[in-house]
Amino acid sequence: MIDKRLNKINLWLKQIFYSTAFRIEPASSDASFRRYFRVSIDNETLILMDAPPAQEDTKPFIKIASFLYQQGINVPKINAKDVESGFLLISDFGNKSYLDELNDQSADNLYHCAINSLIDIQLCPSQDIKLPYYDRSLLQREMDLFPQWFLGKHIDMPTPDFLSNTFDKLIDSALEQPQVIVHRDYHSRNLMHTTNNTPGIIDFQDAVIGPISYDLVSLLRDCYIVWPDDKIANWIYYYFTKAQQKGLLIDISIEQFTRWFDLMGLQRHLKILGIFARLNYRDNKPNYMKDLPLTLHYVQKISAKYPEFHELSHFLKQQQIVAIS
Questions:
Q1: Which residues make Cβ contacts (< 8 Å) with residue 193, sequence separation at least 6?
Q2: E strand residue ranges, 93-197
Q3: Model confidence at 195, in pLDDT bands (50, 70, 90)?
Q4: Coil, helix or strand for 195?
Q5: I need a surface site. Which of 57, 229, 278, 298 has the fewest CB within 10 A?
Q6: What angle is formed at CA 183 by the lines to CA 225 and CA 309, rounded to 5 degrees?
C-alpha cells in the first residue's frame, strides 16, 4: 500500500535539506493519529512529527513548545514546520524514555529530576500564554468516559446512581487547588532520558491551566509503572517542600496536599479507564488494554482510602473479575 503522506514528507524534507542526503525511519506512534519518524542527516538526528490535519492540529503544539522553550524548559526545538500539511521537524531527545530507564536504583534520581522540571513548568507565567482552563465542564467530560466506555462498553453495566455525586466531589477538590500550567500527560512515556539530568519533555500539546497536583499524580501514579506507597510518599514530600520553597503552595499542609493528590489521581484514572476502553473498542488500538488492571487498582485503592468514596470502592470490587479480564 502506497503511503502518500510519507511521499509528501520526503518531498518536504528535500526542500529543507536541498542536496544534502538524509535517511528517514519510523520512530514511534501514540494514542492519537500522530506518528513520528527519525530523520538522520550528516551527524545528527531530528524527529519528524506527522499530524494529519483532518485529525490533528499542530498549532497548539507549536504555541506551547515555543513558549516553554523560551522559558528554558527542555522541550523540543521546532526547526521547521508546514502547518497546512501537518509536518513539524523538531529536535530529537533519543529513544530512551523514563519507562525504559526506571528501576529501583535509578528511580530517586529520575523522579527528582522530573519533579524539578515540573516545578519549573508550574513557575512559568501562565498569564503569558492563553491556554484553556481545566474547568468543571472539562473535568466532567473526561470522567464521563468512564461510564460511557469502561462501564457501558467494556463490562456492560449501567451507570450507578451514586456516580454523579462522586464526580462532583472530585471536581470540587480539583477546582479548590492552586491553578498552574498543566502538561496533562506528564508520565514515564512522555519524559525522555537525557544526558544532562533534565528530562526531555514531549506530548504537551493538550496543556491547560489546572490543578497543581495533576501532573504530579500523573507522574507518580503512572498507568505504565507502579511503585510502593512509601516511595510515592517520599516523592510527594520532595515535591511539596520544593513547591513551598518556590511559593507555589502557601499555607497548605502536607495532609491537604496529599488529599488533593489522591483525589486528582482518582479523577484522572477514572478518565483513563474510559480512554483505554475507547482506544480498544472505537479506535482498534487494543495494546492499552493490558494497562487496565493497574489503572483499576489505583481507583480501587484510593476510593477505599476515603469514606466518601466507599460506594465506588464497593461497586468496583463487585465488578473486578469482569473488568480486568
A1: 94, 96, 97, 98, 100, 101, 110, 199, 200
A2: 179-182, 191-192
A3: confident
A4: coil
A5: 229
A6: 60
Q: Map grid coordinates 496543556 to a residue.
A: 207
DSSP structure class, residue 97: B
Domains assigned to the chain: 4-10+21-91 (3.30.200.20), 98-323 (3.90.1200.10)
Angle at 93 between CA 90 and CA 95, to 5 degrees: 120
User: pLDDT tens across 197-222, in order?
Assistant: 899 999 999 999 999 999 999 999 99
Structure confidence by residue, pLDDT tens digits, 258-308: 999 999 999 999 999 999 999 999 999 999 999 999 999 999 999 999 999
DSSP 153: I
Alpha carbon dihedral 172, 173, 174, 180, in 10-degree steps, equals: 120
Query: What are residue 84's phi and psi, to 5 degrees?
Result: -60, -35
Q: Which helix (H) or strand (E) holds 90?
A: strand 87-91
Cα angle 183, 107, 124 (rounded to 5 degrees) comes to 30
The two most distant CA atoms of the chain are separated, in Å, by 67
pTM: 0.93
